[in-house]
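Q: For a teaching handout, I want to show students what a protein-ligand complex looks like in token form. Below are the inputs, and the small molecule is adenosine-5'-triphosphate. Please produce the holo structure.
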Amino acid sequence: EEPTPDTFAPVEVGLHGVTKRFSDQTAVDDITLRVHEGEFFSVLGPSGCGKTTLLRMVAGFEHPDAGRIELDGVDMVGVPPYRRDVNTVFQSYALFPHMSVWDNVAYGVKRKGVKGDALKKTVGEHLELVRLSPFAKRRPAQLSGGQQQRVAIARALAAGPRLLLLDEPLGALDAVLRKELRMELMRIQREVGTTFLYVTHDQEEALVLSHRIAVMNAGKLEQVGYPEDVYERPATRFVAGFIGTSNILDAKVSGVDGHRVELDAPGVTRLRAPLHGEVRHGQRVAATVRPEKVHLYDQAGEPPSGWCVLNGTVRDVVYTGVSTQYVVHIPGGGELVAFVQNTRRIDDAGAPGQPVRLAWDPDFTVLLESADD
Ligand code: ATP
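A: Here is the structure, written as tokens, with adenosine-5'-triphosphate included.
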């Protein structure tokens, strides 16, 4: 008989102080986080930061040295992988090469004892879900990489897991296919509602796909938040640098004016940021601003009053299609990058060697700990 729908109910994942060591190295270092039921949750970080190890512990292939993993509040210690209602999709697809697409998708469903019409229905629905119904009779070798990965996703979901783990599933695909398949993945997850725990080093992928993102570095959690949070309000220098491009200015707090912090930075005429939490007069901080928030004027240009302002000299101009990147040298200071949308004809205001004025709304300045602290 068919399983009742609520056996498929998406699960909540709780990690509490999870730590994993390999000889002298701590691969995962005291991670605490909660993945909500039905959430598309990504773990984002550079190669070697411990993401795969974290995923393998949730799957039950590795065991934490310390801490606790819970699925819907139930401690998973001692629960083997096949009893966790969890399935994994790997970068390598790991399809059965001698079986047809249909048999690959049917594999896990049969193992659950589903037969006859119920089996056909489940397999048919999942082939439909990944839009591969016309390819049911083919062998994996007769499919493109993107199609093979869709079979792997259908196979993993057909078995009815309450949590799907995905380890860089788009990693083996070329850039165009990656973009195509990530839209598919997003649609599939929203359609089935299963909790997805997704591991990637690709920040753009994480921003596009996820309800929430955990940023990891060297085994530790740097920030957990909505895509807009980690991008617009990075909590650490690492997050500011790893996700997108950030300008970082070393600065000192010179005063507080209402809800604004006033700052001094070499070569910068006016630097301000919104006041969040406590700051001390004279405190050294890093002030960051995203390049697309920075506007470019000629030196006679008048930015809106109250904006952050600096004068500099254009060093490099790089045309990238959607935008043009201006690298501006700040006399007595460092460099600042501005991305200017190519929505108007580019004139020669801002050729290398020319003086320019850069300005941005102080709401877009984010203060972080100074590197020296
Ligand atoms: P990548 O994206 O390159 O796969 P990752 O973020 O998934 O990286 P992990 O594979 O989790 O990182 O590895 C984290 C660290 O733990 C690495 O330094 C790795 O060398 C180490 N490590 C992982 N598995 C083992 C193991 N079985 N034995 C010893 N060290 C390991």
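A: Two things your students might notice: The chain has eight helices and 20 strands. Confidence is low (pLDDT under 50) at residues 1-6.
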